[in-house]
Amino acid sequence: MSAKVWLVGAGPGDPDLLTLKAVKALRQAEIVMIDDLVNPAVLEHCPGARIVPVGKRGGCRSTPQAFIHRLMLRYARQGKCVVRLKGGDPCIFGRGSEEVDWLQQHGIEVEMVNGITAGLAGATNCGIPLTLRGVARGVTLVTAHTQDDSTLNWQALAQGGTTLVVYMGVAKLSDIRESLLAGGMSANMPVAMIENASLPQQRECRSSLATMQQDALAFQLKSPAILVIGEVAGGHQVRAMAATA
């Protein structure tokens, strides 16, 4: 498959959540450029490929994005079938669209393969529906970490009435808590903090907006983790509310 790059979502960690389309792409791959959060078990689908680690982790030494761009271009121009393998979904906090645009500007064909995002898989594994009739009519995915240190409109998020799923928020629990409280969200709002979504070592800590920081400290919450903030994280009582709605 000459001069083509596949941007493939590997899902949140559980290799069984890989899509059939992702498996087909990996089976064709000659070069697999893999992110840090991808489960190595996924690589069983491309035993003959050259594996190139290009990890990017907050707070750790990371592969520069410009280098990743140039490497994809070099391999594609050599006529290799290249798979850029990303954790979760390439277009949910994965810079997938940036890579598509850059490659297309250089004349390279690109195909995107979606993956299941950690917020969905982690919540499901904890029995949390991100939307629920009579309780939550929508879900909002946000990241607490931005490249330019810009601030989200926390007041709008606090008053939006949707379930909030916060990625990369462990280091900013205090800021998230204070911002949502200042925006008008109830201190009693349920919060689920989910570490290592979908993996055998997944852990969850149920809390509230008021106490989530101290609970996370006692729980020794570590990245990678997602936060689910909303009534849906309240458990069986919320389901009873939905059943009567």
Automatic annotation (TrEMBL):
Its EC number is 2.1.1.107. Residues 4-211 form the Tetrapyrrole methylase domain. InterPro entries: 4pyrrol_Mease, 4pyrrol_Methylase_sf, 4pyrrole_Mease_sub1, 4pyrrole_Mease_sub2, CobA/CysG_C, Siro_Cobalamin_biosynth, Uropor_MeTrfase_CS. GO terms for molecular function: uroporphyrin-III C-methyltransferase activity. Keywords: Methyltransferase, Porphyrin biosynthesis, S-adenosyl-L-methionine, Transferase. One of its GO terms (biological process) is methylation. Pathway: Cofactor biosynthesis; adenosylcobalamin biosynthesis; precorrin-2 from uroporphyrinogen III: step 1/1; Porphyrin-containing compound metabolism; siroheme biosynthesis; precorrin-2 from uroporphyrinogen III: step 1/1. Belongs to the precorrin methyltransferase family. This is uroporphyrinogen-III C-methyltransferase.
